[in-house]
Design goal:
By secondary structure, the chain is an all-alpha fold. It folds into 2 domains: 56 residues, no CATH class; 117 residues, Cytochrome Bc1 Complex, Chain D, domain 2. It is 48% helix and 0% strand. The chain is built from 9 helices and no strands.
Length: 174
């Protein structure tokens, strides 16, 4: 075995410990435990991934975006939550607006995902989904995430269309 192959695991550990965020690697059942922790409001350990963003944390750009809004804006309830017709219309709107980056099931594996500097968010991950409110999702769709490939829907979508997409996206993590 070459010296580089023996040292590779050490290099990974060294790189992982150089992250500017505190991170711990958890056991295989941790995503379920982290989901329960998020739902109960506990602090959640993060698992480092490529690009310095944890699989169960929000990107710095997304965190900055949502922290810029009031608690009332972030706390908006989804007026269409659970409505079957809205979910189906939202699915169609998602397919035309979001599929290209996020993919059919929201895993961030759409056809354009390989061309983005950073993999689009996995919208189907229940842990990540638990970190965002419906209002947060609405704001992200409406305003985009500056500094990333996530565009603003701005004048392209009505509030009802945005809420329908949010309604559909919320089904992806269940």
């Amino acid at each position: 075995m070459s010296m580089w192959r023996r040292l590779a695991p050490l290099g990974f550990l060294l790189l992982a410990s150089c992250s500017d965020e505190t991170a711990t690697v958890s056991d295989a059942k941790a995503p379920v435990d982290r989901l329960a922790a998020v739902e109960s409001g506990e602090v959640v350990d993060s698992v480092p991934t490529a690009g310095g963003v944890s699989e169960n944390s929000l990107s710095p750009e997304l965190t900055t975006l949502i922290e810029g809004f009031s608690s009332a804006e972030r706390g908006q309830a989804n007026p269409l939550s659970g409505d079957a017709e809205s979910i189906e219309k939202g699915r169609s709107e998602y397919q035309s607006m979001c599929f290209v980056c996020h993919g059919a099931s929201g895993k961030g594996d759409g056809p354009a995902s390989k061309a983005t500097p950073r993999k689009p968010s996995d919208l189907s991950d229940p842990v990540r989904a638990g970190l965002l409110s419906s209002g947060d999702r609405f704001l992200v769709l409406r305003h985009g995430i500056p500094g990333t490939s996530m565009p603003a829907s701005g004048a392209n979508l009505s509030d009802d269309q945005v809420w329908r997409i949010v309604t559909f996206v919320e089904t992806l993590s269940k």
